[in-house]
Design goal:
The protein is mainly α. Helices cover about 80% and strands about 0% of the residues. Among the domains are: about 1-110, Serine Threonine Protein Phosphatase 5, Tetratricopeptide repeat (Alpha Horseshoe), CATH 1.25.40.10; about 400-500, Tetratricopeptide repeat domain (Serine Threonine Protein Phosphatase 5, Tetratricopeptide repeat).
C-alpha cells in the first residue's frame, strides 16, 4: 500500500487556509471539528470522526483536505463508494491532491479496477517522478494485466530511480524468462551486470540465453568471464568443448577435453566425452586407446562397451557389435543405450526375434523413445505381428501429429498387406503434406495408387520418387511393376474392343 503523507502536514495546510479566510471565527470552528475528527480517527472511531469532518466541511466546503479525511473514514468503514465520491470532490477542488489519488488508487486496486488504478497511479507518477512506490505499483499493475513489456519497463525505471531496488530488476528478469521474452531478459541481465559484473548467477543466465539463441560465440565469451572469476574447472572445459563442436571447430573441441584431463586424467565423464569426439572425427585408433582405459578402470560402467559397439556399427559390422555387447547383456540389462544398440545390431542382421527382445527391453527402460518404437514397429511388420505394429504406429501419430515417418510407415504396412487401403491413402497423403520431397513417402503413395488401380497417379508419384533417389532398388522395382501392369491392362482393353468389333 502507498504510504500517506503525515496528517500533521494536512493540518498545517488546513490552518493556512483558515488564516486567510474571510470569516476567521467560522474557520476556527471548522478547524476545531477537523482536529476532533483526526483525534477520533486515531482512536479508531471512524463513524464519529466522519461526523466531525462533516461539521468542518459545512463551514468550509472548498477544503479538499477535509474531503480526503472523510473519504479515509468511509474507506475504513468499508463504504468504498462514498469514499470514492469524496475523493473525486477533493480532486475536483485540487487535481494535485496526492493523498486523494493514493487512497483512490488503493480503492481501485481493492476492487480490481485495474484500468482505473493504472490511470490514477500514472497521475501520481507524473506528480512525483522519483517516487519508487508509484513506479513499482504501476509495474505490479502491468504484471497483473499481463502487459509484460510495460511491467518490465517500470521495474527497470524503478531501478533507475533507486539503484538499491535490485528486487525490481530480479522481478523483471523473472517475468522475461517466464514469458519467453529472451531479448528483454538479456537486457535486464546486462543492467544487473553493470551493477555487479561478477554476479555468477546472472552470467550463467546470460550464457543460457545465448545458448538458447544459438549465439555460441557469445556463450564462449561469457564462459571465459566465468572462468576468470572462479578459475578453471572441468565443467567449463566440457561446456567449451560442446560449443566448439557446435561451431564446427573439432580440433578446439578436442583441445578443451585434453585440457580438462590435465585436471583429472581418470574422470570417466571426460574420457567418455573424448572417445565420443574421436569417434565422430573418425579417429578410431585414438578412440580405441582411450576407450581401453575406460574398460580397464571402469569395468562396471556400460559406456566403454557401448563405445566399442558404436565403432563397430559405424564400420558396418553389426556382428562385431553383438560380440562386444551380448556377453554383458544381463549385467547392463537396465541401460537403455546398451539394449537399444544390441537390438539395432540384431535388426541389421535380420534376426528379428533377438532384436525384438532387446528393443522391447530398451522401451521398457525409456518408454518415451520414439526411435525404439519406430524400430519395433518395423520388426512387428516383418514378423507379421500387425496388431502390435498398428498399436505402435497409432501411439506415434497420436503423440506427435508431425511424425511423417510414422504416417508413411503405417501406410506402407497397410498397403503391403492389402488392408484398409483407403486409410493407407489418407495416412500417405498426410506424410506427403509434411515432407513433400521425401522419395520414400512419394513411393509409398504411388504404390497405394497402384494397388487402387490408378496407374497414371501411381506413375506420377513413383517417377518423382525415383528422380530424388535414382539408386533405390525398391523404387525401381515398383516403377517396373506399375509400367508392366498398366501395359497389360491397356492390351486387355484393346483385345476387348477388337472382340466386340
Amino acid at each position: 500500500m502507498i504510504k500517506s503523507q503525515p496528517k500533521i502536514i494536512h493540518i498545517l495546510i488546513l490552518i493556512s487556509c483558515f488564516v486567510f479566510a474571510d470569516d476567521i471565527e467560522n474557520k476556527e470552528i471548522a478547524l476545531y471539528h477537523f482536529m476532533q475528527g483526526e483525534f477520533l480517527m486515531n482512536q479508531g472511531n471512524y463513524a464519529l470522526a466522519i461526523l466531525e469532518f462533516q461539521e468542518a466541511i459545512e463551514l468550509d466546503p472548498n477544503a479538499s483536505t477535509i474531503h480526503v479525511s472523510i473519504a479515509d473514514g468511509y474507506r475504513r468503514l468499508g463504504k468504498e463508494e462514498r469514499a470514492e465520491d469524496h475523493l473525486n470532490i477533493a480532486l475536483a477542488l485540487n487535481p494535485n491532491e496526492k493523498e486523494a489519488l493514493e487512497i483512490l488508487g488503493q480503492l481501485y486496486l481493492n476492487q480490481r479496477k485495474y484500468d482505473d488504478a493504472e490511470l490514477t497511479y500514472k497521475r501520481l507518477h507524473n506528480l512525483d517522478l522519483k517516487n519508487i512506490d508509484y513506479i513499482f505499483t504501476l509495474a505490479d499493475l502491468y504484471r497483473i494485466k499481463r502487459d509484460w513489456n510495460s511491467a518490465i519497463d517500470y521495474y527497470i525505471k524503478g531501478y533507475e530511480v533507486n539503484p538499491l531496488a535490485v528486487a525490481g530488476l530480479e522481478q523483471a528478469l523473472k517475468i522475461a524468462l517466464t514469458t519467453g521474452n529472451y531479448t528483454r531478459a538479456e537486457e535486464v541481465c546486462e543492467i544487473l551486470l553493470n551493477d555487479n559484473p561478477e554476479n555468477l548467477d546472472i552470467l550463467e543466465t546470460m550464457k543460457d540465453l545465448s545458448l538458447f539463441k544459438k549465439q555460441y560465440e557469445k556463450s564462449l565469451e561469457i564462459l571465459n568471464e566465468i572462468q576468470l572469476i572462479q578459475g578453471k574447472s572441468i565443467d567449463i572445459f566440457i561446456q567449451k568443448s560442446a560449443l566448439y563442436e557446435e561451431l564446427d571447430k573439432p580440433e578446439l573441441s578436442l583441445k578443451m577435453i585434453y585440457s580438462a584431463l590435465e585436471i583429472d586424467s581418470n574422470s570417466i565423464d571426460l574420457l567418455h566425452r573424448l572417445v565420443t569426439l574421436l569417434i565422430n572425427q573418425s579417429k578410431n585408433e585414438e578412440a580405441i586407446l582411450y576407450n581401453h582405459k575406460i574398460l580397464e578402470k571402469y569395468p562396471d560402467d556400460p559406456r566403454g562397451f557401448i563405445n566399442n559397439a558404436v565403432m563397430a556399427m559405424g564400420g558396418k559390422k553389426p556382428k562385431e557389435a553383438i560380440s562386444v555387447l551380448k556377453p554383458y547383456s544381463d549385467k547392463f540389462r537396465q541401460d537403455f543405450t546398451f539394449q537399444y544398440l544390441l537390438g539395432i545390431a540384431y535388426y541389421q542382421l535380420k534376426k528379428y526375434d533377438s532384436s525384438e527382445v532387446h528393443l522391447s527391453q530398451a522401451l521398457e527402460i525409456y518408454p518415451q523413445s520414439r526411435n525404439t518404437k519406430h524400430n519395433l514397429a518395423l520388426i512387428y511388420d516383418s514378423t507379421g505381428k500387425w496388431d502390435k505394429s498398428d498399436k505402435l504406429y497409432l501411439d506415434l501419430i497420436s503423440s506427435d501429429s508431425t511424425d511423417a515417418q510414422a504416417y508413411n510407415n503405417y501406410a506402407y504396412s497397410l498397403v503391403e498387406r492389402n488392408h484398409k487401403i483407403d486409410l493407407a491413402l489418407e495416412l500417405a497423403q498426410i506424410a506427403i503434406r509434411l515432407e513433400p520431397k521425401s522419395a520414400a513417402y512419394l513411393d509409398t503413395i504411388g504404390w497405394i495408387y497402384f494397388k487402387m488401380d490408378f496407374y497414371d497417379k501411381a506413375l506420377h508419384y513413383i517417377k518423382e520418387s525415383l528422380s530424388i533417389d535414382s539408386s533405390n532398388i525398391t523404387i525401381k522395382e515398383h516403377l517396373d511393376e506399375v509400367i508392366r501392369v498398366k501395359a497389360e491392362a491397356s492390351t486387355g482393353e484393346v483385345l476387348q474392343v477388337e472382340q466386340k468389333d
